[in-house]
Amino acid sequence: MNAIPFDTYAYVKKLKAAGFTEEQAGAQAEALAGVVDANLATKHDIAALRRDIEVLRAEVGRDIAEAKNSTVKWVAGLLLAQAAVITALDKLIN
């Protein structure tokens, strides 16, 4: 079943009118129908890709949020450690 309609009969008629033999026109029509079936995206294919993109977008958004939270925790920890080191050095010097 073709997902994309391709009128092979009309195509064969046009090729025959252009000077192709019946065999040549039939072979051309079959080859082109195979290419159409194998390589062209349907509306269903595009809708599935859009759903996949939305899922990926949500996953990337979650990953970015997790990375942001992790970075904030590390920076806060480093700031506290830096403050502790400065306080210790200040007490040692004074």
What does this protein look like?
The chain has 94 residues and is mainly α. It folds into two domains: 1-40; 43-94. The chain contains three helices and no strands. Helix 1 (8-17) packs across helix 2. The chain is rod-shaped and about 105 Å long. The relative contact order is 0.07. The model has no long low-confidence stretch (mean pLDDT 90).
Low-confidence stretches: none
Order of helices and strands: HHH
How many domain modules? 2
Helix content: over 70%
- The number of helical segments is 3
What structural class should be given to the helix and strand makeup?
mainly alpha
Beta-strand content bin? under 5%
Question: If you compute it from the alpha carbons, what radius of gyration comes out, rounded to the nearest whole angstrom?
Answer: 33 Å
> Tell me, what's the shape?
rod-shaped
Distance between the termini: 87 Å
Mean pLDDT: 90
Largest sheet: none
Number of strands: 0
Question: Can I get a quick summary?
Answer:
By secondary structure, the protein is mostly helical. Helices cover 84% and strands 0% of the residues.
Descriptive labels:
2 domains, 94 residues, 84% helix, 3 helices, mainly alpha
Protein topology:
Layout (H helix, E strand, L loop, with lengths): L7 H10 L4 H18 L3 H51 L1
Helix pairs in contact: 1-2
